[in-house]
Write a structure and sequence with these properties.
Blueprint: H1 6-44, E1 55-58, E2 64-68, E3 73-74, H2 84-94, H3 106-119, H4 129-138, H5 145-161, H6 164-174, E4 181-182, H7 184-192, H8 201-209, H9 214-217, H10 223-239, H11 245-253, H12 271-285, H13 289-294, E5 298-301, H14 305-318, E6 326-332, E7 339-343, H15 368-377, E8 385-388, E9 393-395, E10 400-402, E11 414-417, H16 418-424, H17 427-437, H18 439-448, H19 470-481, E12 492-496, E13 502-505, H20 516-526, H21 543-546, E14 554-559, E15 563-569, E16 574-580, H22 590-593, H23 595-607, E17 622-627, E18 643-648, H24 664-688
Parallel strand pairs: 1-5, 3-4
Antiparallel strand pairs: 1-2, 5-12, 6-7, 6-16, 8-11, 9-10, 12-13, 14-15, 15-16, 17-18
Transmembrane segments: 18-41
Main location: membrane
Domain Glycosyl transferase family: 62-238
Length: 689
């Protein structure tokens, strides 16, 4: 037996004191390090919780029409919009001590380390919800010591700066649920076609089981394993006191109905419209497409789903399915410019090129309302007469000539009024008007009406040889229809960021850019294309569809060898249709030339079917009188045709028509007066040339 001498005792005590001192130093050092890390984490402030999120696009009635997710579907919803079952299941299976620990569950860490030591392998995890959230937010999923150290630091930062509720909300909104789906809201929508707040106990338990191994526990990969893990979670919830035995039994008996996978491959509603929305948002917010897709924006659009479906149905049913002809369609609200429906082609999957917003085509006579508005603004009236006959025009100081013709070679070979000219689409009258005003006037009007493509100062511009975009022309007609207030094609009414903050809202104030009286007079003249009273040396251009229309419309068609147009409006809606071939192929079939008018007429009638009938209301400063359309003079009881026509106040005719008096002297006198007047105008016109 060893004897402890006083000397040995002194050495032992010194050693113990030294060890104790070193231990205290180590403890102080470690405590200082830990405290410094905690203080530094607090000083660093809250880490950003921003993650890529899916952007959602809504129609005007709030219906979701599409989502932009850059290959990853992500939504963020607050805890109040998540089923309690999903939250309880998450805590029960992932981190039962979540609300008690400070980010690290030391008991689980020790248990996992012991289990790994016994198995000599990694068999048990000990990561808390906070640690997993830190990893999802900031780190890759490698297993290096550096990554683990960073994970610990971010875990401390999260716990120091956010509440448990905020951490849980962030975690359940960012965890991966397989198939490119992130977050409980996207998962609920993807697997069950519903919102996270509507999940049943059985559905919530199944979803919460997927993140452990999406490639194993997704019901689309292995339904048997997915539902086996669901059972484990349900029993854990019961053991943790979240649910009762009866709830457990009911959930296990519930037959889950999954969303059909093929439905998730369907393209969204109105794909051409959505493309236009993307371009609009990029311009409004000055961000690129990738940013739009991943910022979790909520984009509220102008789309009217019913109108869109009507337009698509009519396009499909009206055009021969075996034909390669293409089409574009736009409908917008004249008072606001809100685009209500848009089709950029017959098949988006085959050709996403948007013929409504991108294609630049010759509008033909559909440009004439802009010309005649310009004429009204510069002193012309619906009664202004010019002669319709084959004419060769000289321009460019006489160096060049232009010889237009009327459709099918029909001419009045007499004087006609502007009212007739627009209804019958007389080309000679249009070019004479264009030349008389000065070719720069129509170019300036095109800019005033918002056309983005510049017109040429040549005679043929009056007949629509300068190409335009369909959406621009429809918008121009909308400006006429609203009395001359400036509008622009509008796709987006407001945009919210991922937190619900409003970051854009469209303006409702509209500037008056046209003369209101001239705009109304032009609009009312445009109703003539559907009025058989104006039939003369040829038929009105709306003859084939006039009988199908049940209310007043203003419109104009346009035809070239390669393009067919119909644009028109009521007080509530303006719509335009273009049909033609992409590569400039001529439209030779009569049937194909009728598509645009047929689609337009049927759309207007169906879309307004449940709307009240509204007439174009004349503003102050215009006067309505009955005239003889052929002479432009005030009609008498002897005139075979009388039509109510509007004039800018002070320009209305004051002379009565005498052409139909039985008294021959009166007829001769009236004819002489008319000829004198016509010759004076004609001489003035050609003197200017």
């Amino acid at each position: 037996m060893d004897v402890i001498t006083p000397k040995r005792l002194r050495i032992t005590l010194k050693t113990m004191r030294a060890l104790l001192f070193i231990g205290l130093l180590v403890l102080v050092f470690l405590s200082t390090i830990i405290l410094s890390i905690v203080l530094y984490a607090k000083w660093q402030g809250p880490p950003s919780l921003t993650v890529p999120q899916s952007t959602i696009i809504y129609a005007s009635d709030g219906t979701k029409i599409g989502e932009l997710h850059n290959g990853q579907k992500r939504y963020w919803v607050p805890l109040d919009d998540i089923s309690d079952y999903a939250l309880q299941a998450t805590v029960a299976i992932e981190d039962q001590s979540f609300f008690e620990h400070n980010g690290f569950d030391y008991k689980r860490i020790a248990g996992a380390a012991l289990a790994d030591l016994k198995a000599m392998a990694k068999v048990q995890g000990a990561s808390t919800i906070t640690q997993q959230y830190a990893r999802n937010l900031f780190l890759h999923h490698g297993k290096t010591w550096e990554r683990k150290a960073k994970e610990a630091f971010y875990t401390i930062r999260l716990e120091q700066n956010y509440s448990k509720e905020q951490i849980l909300e962030g975690y359940i909104n960012t965890i991966y649920y397989g198939h490119g789906v992130y977050g409980i809201e996207a998962a609920a929508n993807y697997y069950f076609g519903k919102s996270a707040k509507d999940l049943s106990l059985a559905e919530a338990a199944l979803l919460v089981g997927i993140p452990k191994g999406p490639s194993t526990y997704s019901p689309y990969v292995n339904q048997e394993k997915a539902e086996a893990r669901q059972e484990i979670i349900l029993k854990t919830m019961k053991n943790e006191g979240y649910i009762t035995a009866n709830q457990l039994d009911a959930a296990l008996r519930e037959e889950l109905v999954y969303t059909k996978k093929e439905s998730k491959q369907q393209k969204g509603i109105a794909p051409y419209f959505q493309d236009a929305v993307m371009e609009s948002v990029a311009d409004l917010l000055q961000i690129d497409e990738e940013a739009i897709q991943t910022q979790g924006l909520k984009i509220y659009t102008t789309l009217d789903i019913t109108m869109q479906e009507t337009a698509e149905k009519l396009m499909n049913s009206s055009i021969d399915q075996s034909s390669d002809i293409q089409a574009g369609f736009v409908a917008l609200e004249p008072s606001t410019g809100h685009v209500k429906a848009l089709i950029g082609g017959r098949e988006y999957d085959k050709s996403p090129f948007n013929r409504a917003t991108q294609a630049v085509r010759q509008p033909g006579s559909a440009i004439k309302p802009l010309l005649y508005y310009t004429a009204i603004e510069n002193g012309f009236t619906p009664s202004t007469e010019m002669k319709s006959e084959p004419t060769t025009f000289k321009y460019d100081n006489g160096k060049a000539t232009y010889k237009p013709s009327n459709y099918n070679g029909y001419y009045a070979n007499d004087f006609i009024t502007m009212l007739q000219a627009i209804a019958l689409s007389d080309n000679i009258y249009a070019v004479k008007t264009h030349m008389f005003l000065g070719m720069d006037k129509l170019v300036k009007s095109g800019e005033q009406f918002g056309l983005k493509t510049k017109m040429k100062q040549i005679p043929s511009t009056a007949l629509g040889t300068s190409p335009v975009r369909l959406i621009d022309l429809v918008n121009a007609y909308g400006i006429l229809g609203n009395g001359g207030k400036k509008i622009e094609p509008t796709f987006v009414t407001k945009i919210e960021d991922a937190s619900g903050k409003l970051i854009y809202k469209s303006s409702k104030e509209k500037e008056q850019i046209l003369d209101e009286q001239a705009a109304f007079v032009t609009t009312h003249m445009m109703t003539g294309m559907f009025d058989p009273k104006l039939n003369d040396y040829t038929s009105i251009t709306g003859q084939t569809i006039a009988s199908t229309l049940t209310r007043e419309y203003a419109g104009k068609s346009g035809t070239t060898s390669t393009d067919s147009w119909m644009v028109g409006f009521s007080p509530q809606i303006v719509a335009g249709v273009w049909t033609g071939y992409d590569k400039g192929k001529s439209i030779n079939l009569v049937q194909e030339r009728s598509y645009a008018k047929k689609i337009w007429a049927n759309f207007m009638e169906e879309s307004l079917e449940d709307e009240s009938v509204k007439a174009f209301r004349p503003p102050d400063g215009v006067v309505g009188v009955y005239i003889n359309p052929a002479s432009g003079k005030l009609a008498t009881k002897d005139c075979p045709v009388r039509r109510l026509t509007y004039f800018v106040e002070g320009t209305e005719p004051t002379e009565y028509c005498k052409e139909h008096k039985s008294n021959k002297k009166s007829e001769d006198k009236a004819k002489k007066e008319t000829n004198d007047k016509e010759e004076g105008l004609f001489e003035k016109l050609f003197k200017w040339w």
